[in-house]
Amino acid sequence: MSQIARILLFVLMAGTVAAWAETPRAAVAGGDNAEINPAVHARNAHSWEYGPFVSYGFGIGDRSSFKFLWGGFQAGKSMFPAVHAGPLSGQFEYSANIMPLWQAYTPAPHDQTFTYPGLPSQVAPVGGGTYRGVSLTPVILRWNFLTQSRRVQPWFQGAGGLIYTTHKFPPDVLVPHGTPGATSVWNFSPQGGVGLHYFIRPKRSLDLGVNAVHISSASLGDRNPGVNASLQFQLGYTYWK
Description:
Elements: H1 3-21, H2 24-28, H3 38-44, E1 48-59, E2 67-78, E3 90-105, E4 110-114, E5 122-126, E6 130-145, E7 152-169, E8 184-188, E9 191-201, E10 204-215, E11 227-240
């Protein structure tokens, strides 16, 4: 894990701990007045939220050489009143995002040895380089935790998205025209993550998140090597309305 990723993860964990550790008096002072208690006000108002974000990530395991840079816009809304259930108390939110910036950085094209059961090893050219595309995540189901904090609101989420790339991704054995074959320009991105909003002032928050993302074509191509797991670190800025 890179140094930047470690720092973001530490800040995220520290903020979450602080949210639960803050005294109840600080949380209830002033009721849900936005000037005094912005997190509670946004929750009680069932606010819309929207804003830009950027994500940086990397693959795990056999995709550890892959790097990702994504950027886009997310919008969502708290759908129901808060539910009180002990440490799981919280509020459900539905969100979606679109990423016109979607880039994956993979090793440059190279020769690779393939071994198949019962057959001699073969060396074949494999594609690589930078892949560009767009992504749409139409379903983000988020649970915003109730805490004692006036400014910090932790959450966890599950989501599913769709990715289109201008060349078949991930790179695979090259076909005669010199483009990766057997995979697909369409991929799906089931994912889950944790994060927090930090209200810097009423109706404005900085957002940190960590998402584990799986990328797979669901066998739309002849092969589906995919990216079994990647970690994406997200930084955003949210307006609450």
